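Action item from last week, closing it out:
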Amino acid sequence: MTPNLNDLMKQAQQMQEKMKQAQEDLAKAEVEGESGAGLVKVLMNGRHDVRRVSIDDSLMSESKEILEDLLAAAVNDAVRKVEASNQQAMKNMTGGLDIPGFKMPF
């Protein structure tokens, strides 16, 4: 019994629409990275755009280098969280199958 080509095309189109929606949802999702026990926080969306940076007032007396290091660490934390979120969403969508070379959302 051979599958109907029209049915296969419909399934492929539905999967493509689901993937597009998943990409849009992941791009909108926001995560918060932090460093310095929460004294520096970075809000980032799924496209790795930094939406907000929060630095506790107590750090304003610290050196520029310390602030730079804390900010870099918070951004790196947010990037790792975005990547983990994207990987989990992909696993959920593919039923746990790992598709080599396929990265979400883009």
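Closing note: The chain has a mean pLDDT of 87.
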